[in-house]
Amino acid sequence: MTEDELARVSGWMQAHVADFEGPLVAEKFAVGQSNPTYLLRAASGTYVLRRKPAGVLLKSAHAVDREFRVQAALAQTDVPVPKMLALCEDEAVLGVTFYVMSHVSGRNLVDPSLPGEVPETRAALMAEMARVLAAIHDVDLEAVGLADFGAPGDYYARQLGRWSKQYRASATEAQPGMDRLMSWLEENLPQEDGPRTLVHGDYRIDNMLFSENGPDCLAVLDWELSTVGHPFADLAGVIMQWQLPTGVDGRGLAGLDRAALGLPSDEGFIEMYCKNRRIEPPSNFGFYVAFAFFRMAAILQGVKKRALDGNAANPDKAMKLGAYVPQFAELGWEARKQYG
């Protein structure tokens, strides 16, 4: 962020953020490929600014205004989120929409295998992850003013249409595996079965902040993809992530002896989640996981396209992530039958 931009943000915060006092210093977070995010330090404390990226953007992408709205609505619920302070839609300030929220100091656990933790702590953290996901899906949409946060109708039909269009708009080369997976998903859409809840859209352990001294979740972050829809989208997203390779790039659990590490099996996590929500385990879960792989592949393709167009927050990492699109398409194809 340039000195001129900092000055404009500081002036805007003086007018819109209670008790704000400059001067202002900004430090860009290294994480986050979608919406550039900054730690702001000021005389009055620390804040976080999250903004749309510059350049031409896909329609409905990078919806920081929706992030602000949903987190503000969740302030009085059991879902832990940072305090929303102010939303700026005046592009004269930064050239794009942005918002400022409180800074939550906590542990960000990037690797779901939780290296360095003892089995009991791993089990407690995963149980908390299941509890918070259930809390998201149990939010009373009418009570918090989010009943209109997503379009009515068949969630998966809408999502498949949306992400197919997004993928095709950002495609940079032929991907037969993606074409095959999209066709299968279209032919096997489940019947609308009723559940309509808040959906986070990218629920992973690295989008959470935990207490420094225990398993308590202090905040769920990155609500860009949130909407009202089918809760199994989030649940399948967790299971999808765990099928990936271990390490910084995959951030998965593939090949690990989960029982020895204190980590739940896929079925064990699903059971914990369902127990928290007092519902029966889902059937036909293969479709949901296959769709999760497809959607993530479409997102990664968009990340790659932004890198090629010069709009990525971290171009080198964006290109590396984009290279995983064929692998995600193949894993989605395999997941069709894996969960019945």
UniProtKB/TrEMBL annotation:
Domain Aminoglycoside phosphotransferase, chain residue ranges per copy: 27-260
Alphabetized GO MF terms: kinase activity
The protein, known as: Aminoglycoside phosphotransferase (APT) family kinase protein
Domain of life: Bacteria
KW Iron (keyword) present: no
Organism whose genome encodes this protein: Sagittula marina
PANTHER family per the UniProt record, alphabetical: AMINOGLYCOSIDE PHOSPHOTRANSFERASE DOMAIN-CONTAINING PROTEIN (PTHR47829:SF3), HYDROLASE, PUTATIVE (AFU_ORTHOLOGUE AFUA_1G12880)-RELATED (PTHR47829)
Keyword set, alphabetical order: Kinase, Transferase
